[in-house]
Amino acid sequence: MATKYDVFMELYAQSGPQKIIVLVKSLKQKKSGYDQIRKILETLVEMKLVNKNKYGYEKVMNPKNQHLFEMMKYCLQNGVNYNDLFNKKVAQYLSKAFLKRSFTANDLSFHPRTFSEISSLLEKNGFLIILSRKPFKAMVPYNSFLGDLMVYYGYRPLVAKKQQDEYFNEIQKELVNFKKLRAKNMRKYHELLETFQIKFIHHSLSIEGNSVTLAQTIKLLRDQIVPENLSVESVQEVQNYQKAFLQMLQNVSDELPLTKESILNYHFIALQHKPQWAGKIRDEMVTIRGNKKFKVAAPKDIESLLDHLIEKYHEFGKMKKPSLKEIFEFTAYIHNEFQHIHPFFDGNSRTTRLITFHFLQMNEIPIFDIPLGMLEEYVFSTKGAKKRNDHRLGQVLQQIILYNLKNINESLA
To answer: CB–CB of 251/262 below 8 Å?
Structure first.
């Protein structure tokens, strides 16, 4: 059954007035749904989202309505059901949650059922990170989409000041549990891995501007069906990144350490749709789009800097039983260092994530996705940062890994 938001989206995507019968057809409703669509349109007119004239119904163009349309596009792009999320209670929940670095049910003062429903909705879509089930404790990482959602419903997006939070104890507990659960159910684990890696490929490439939606990515990679209306390059970009991701998993399975050659190979596989750049060190200066303060290496220094990074990696590999703190500190270092070397013309960030995941999984820490709600904070801790801060990136990576572990363990249990 179509909702008011479905009708709004359909009208906003059109260039002119639409008759009710045309909307019934375009929304794939039965003819008997005519009256329902008419009532929805009357509601949208009252909400000043839609105008009625002698030609039919058409969108009302203004900044607030455009804002709503862009938020709903974001949902469609990322497989989020806007009909669930666009609710004043959700915005109220977020307004209270953002005031806390972490929160319990008592902190938000909702009816238990309402609290549970909204928490489950946010968690399912990657907007909430569970720190503990019993007693319940969670956090909602801030991102501009959730901030915009709050503003749309009249709330100010005030956010608690960042602290030096560490999650080593929680991660350690989940790692112990993960190893036991994986050993008991390897088949289920591999099924989960497929689901996680498809989401990661979508999230990772969406950061880089790929417009393929999550639903289209699933259709392409899981069902092996090429969706209509996609460019050849965007399809190849998704397919090639999956190949590179699978190569990374195979290398980890074979216990192969990172080398300069393996890094170049990851890039070569991921960028095969751009053969002029694939696997080749750049010989010109580049800049980071949107962040002029981000310093990258001069072409003449790239080779020596990569050699030094690999040398540091092998030195770390000689350590006997490094602590989680040491692992995360080096993870943040290798991630940021590679980003700042920026050895390629294109595809540096997606390659950075592959070598970061390679390193973590070689240290028996599973990470297969960056949740939707943390993509923005992750970017602002790396190539979006005005100043390099490895410690801050390390904290963000801890949250991402805790999210991965919690989801994997609860699915395997």
So the answer is: yes
